[in-house]
Amino acid sequence: MIRNLARRTDAFTSNVFLVTGDRRVLVDVGNDFDVVGAAREHVDDIDAVVLTHTHYDHVENLPAVVEAFDADVWGYDTTQDGVDHALEDGDTVQMGDDEYTALHTPGHKNDHLCLFSAAASVLFAGDLVFANGSFGRTDLEEGDRDQLVESIDRVLDTVPEDLAAMHTGHGPSVEDRPYHDIELAWQAARF
């Protein structure tokens, strides 16, 4: 099961997804809200944290999560504060009951990852793309519009057209034709 723990939060934060099953994982940890308390409403413990990238709104709660759950933290770049284990392009990580493949998708930030499970037909898109064809900012440090377009193109080549669900770093998840939203983001980002 996948739950967005930040869904009803008023603070400016990223989405925080709790993936339950054999391995309880948080995808991103957000900022400015009690993510530990929100997680404990559903589980007693967290096995790991997987970061889509290290912008503050996705990682500011990391010290509290690590202290509360003693969870390992996985991300693309172990030189970033709090990242214990590297997830390189093509590596797999178990989240819940499924294996997810890490896709290095720079353009919004150099350490950006998307996570895709073919078995679950689920994509965690981070801040690469959003619902309704929106895409991640490229005007921040490490942002690069051409790289972002290439990363979106790679995701389109990786996920199936009948992808069941896309969970994004901000805004609503997409469970009705998410591939179409990725296509729209690719088209919009090119101009």
From TrEMBL:
- Keyword Phosphoprotein in the entry? The reply is no
Keyword tags: Hydrolase, Metal-binding, Zinc
Determine the domain of life of the protein's source: Archaea
Q: Reply yes or no: does the keyword Metal-binding apply.
A: yes
Domain Metallo-beta-lactamase: residue ranges: 13-167
Question: Which SMART domains has this protein been placed in?
Answer: Lactamase_B (SM00849)
Q: What does the record give under GO molecular function?
A: hydrolase activity; metal ion binding
Q: Which cofactor does it need?
A: Zn(2+)
SUPFAM superfamilies, from UniProt?
Answer: Metallo-hydrolase/oxidoreductase
Task: From the Swiss-Prot or TrEMBL record, give the protein name.
Answer: MBL fold metallo-hydrolase
Record the organism. Haloarcula salinisoli
